[in-house]
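Regression report. Comparing outputs from two consecutive submissions.

Submission 1:
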Amino acid sequence: MKLMCWNCRGVGNFATVRDLKQLLIASDPDIIFLCETKINANRFSYVHRKCRMEGCLAVNAEDKSGGLAMMWKESNKVEIQTYSSNHIDSMIHVENDSPIRFTGFYGNADPNKRQCSWNMLRRVGKSVKEKWIIGGDFNSILDDAEKEGGRRKSNILMEDFRSIVEELSMVDLKTDNGWFTWVNNREGTARVKERLDHFLMSANDVNSFLFLEAGVIRQSSSDHDAIILDIEGGRPRDSLRDSRLCFKHDVRWARNEEAKMIIKEGWQSGIQETMEKITNVGKKLGRWQYKKLKQMRNQIGTLQVKINRIIDGQGSNYEAWKFARYREKILGSKIRVNWLKEGDRNTRFFHVRATNRRKKNIARLKDINGYWRENTVDICKAIREYFQLLFKSNLNSNRVLNLDYIERCISVEDNDKLLKDFTDSEIKEAFSQMDPRKAPRIDRLSGNFFRENWDVVGEDVIKLCLDILRGEKDMGCLNDTIIVLIPKIKEPVDMTNFRPISLCRVI
């Protein structure tokens, strides 16, 4: 689960909404808390629709200042407890675990009224019995190390902040990247940077979260950066993964000359069987594609460093904006971030992307004997046993069905047409009519791959299809596929609660 907080400094303009959407897509938080929205709850409903997060609570701004909002995904069970102009307190019900209390907090910017904000946290703290996380813009620092430039902060204000942290038995979660979260956007000796945005966690519960990761996400559209807390960010990845699923043909390379040359060499390498040719091309293309994607990630990283240097240094805001837009362009070529371009249109592309983001992996499952299976190996075994039992035949009958009583409804002419041999042109026409974006089989090559490289692969593909249709070749080589389990209910328990869908195949 990922929690994000950002002082957006107003979401009443298109540019900030666009940046917010980009932030949500790139970081994929489960819950986001926004402060200083500077609009009322009715106007924020527009922002909520654009961000495509199902749950939302917005607190009205006061005379175009302040304003809070919390948004969350449908997959999270979030209950709002209390809210005010300085906080939104929520209860997050975590599957197979105890609930978490998450309080989005905005400290009063006026030092003379800051004590009211601390008193509000005290009132919330009295009702908290769960694991507690507080995140947001505290408008205060803990010590001198959290400020650079400008006049020294008042010791009294820093001591007040430290006192409330100690009184509530909280600890400050340090970020893995970045430190300062606010800059005054001035240059030279007038430049001031502070760490105003924090995540606090109840001290007794820190050891319950073994894989916590906190980070700073630089933003050019606000003087505040966003902060993110990933509860499971440091958890090691599951080692069980089919190596064939590591590669997926990327449509970006469909007309890339270098990619076409690799496909041609892989296909014409002397291998006879068509399916083996497909496997060989997938391996060669996968290695090349991995290098290309690595280069793109490095390029994105370089641009991010330049953006950070401009924000941290004495460069102009225009320079930061220019590099940020260029970085967005690079990111825009990635399928996931294409929402930036397509998100405002109700296209099939957007619908698929939005639906996919709501999907959840199966954390645990009951097997056919009613026992819970919680690791990936045992879950896969339980699924396989279920289907083996389901499709196992219990009939031991040698009876032959008599179909003589069924009246003939097909004429001789129609039957002759149906019995005609398939032709090369019919196979090619069938391929041309297939949606090139449809999900590929386990070799991860979509219809787009075959369409764009038909001059290389077409002859062998036609021969394979004709051999199978004529009964000259066993179709067992085509029986591998990917099965997706779609939940029938909100909280699936066993396999009867899932609907299996076998992803369509190209061949």
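Submission 2:
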Amino acid sequence: MKTQVYKKRHTKDVRKVVRFSGLFASLTGLVLGMYTFFPLISYELYIKPAFASQNFAAPIPQKTILTEDYIQSLFKNTATSLRSLGGNNAQGWMPTTYKEMEIASQLSNYFISIPKLGITNANVSTIDNNVDEHLVHFAGTNLPPNQGNAAIFGHSTLPQWFDPTDYKAIFATAHTLVVGDAINVTINNQIYTYKIVNISIVDPEQANYFEQNTDGSYLTIVTCTPPGTIWKRLLIKAKLETI
């Protein structure tokens, strides 16, 4: 007669695996959910209060209705953002519709200062697109103080991480600027003062901020918004005061 041996299953180990798998799935869903809806939270915390008293074209309506289509657009933008994270070449941030114009570069770099933000002599390169190392002057836009529009791109992040000397966070508080604030440009030891005349937010594919004005010398600061995302573009346009 054969002897049957019964082995007790390690049900505790199985339960642990199931429990940790469920916990991991829940945490993953929570993180993705927070990342997806973070722009709405960021907008309410930073952008909306900053521009409450201004005539400002906001990226998200004052009253956002969470329809099925809107939620789907959030997930689509999240996927795009995840694919784009880590890029430090300004060429990758340009709208696909942008066509570079033939404007000869007259200098390799210049400097800008924004007193209200505590930014002093931030380096703007006209020959290198690495936005982690300096600000970038978009090729094809005119150079200050010439007539036209100089487009300058720099990184943004959450305001609490702002550092005026760190080019990865230099424009984190740019949303606090208002019309009338000064932006100083230094070229060959000569300082030119620009005053902000317009602030707006556009979709990444809009390229109107590259247009060259013929009624004066302008510069446009371009950075990502809402803070901590790369979903929209914050445009801060300033005009040169009479020299």
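Expected: both submissions complete independently.
Actual: both completed, but the second showed a warning that disappeared on reload.
Relevant detail on submission 2: The beta strands are 109-114, 119-125, 135-137, 148-153, 182-187, 190-202, 217-225, 232-240.
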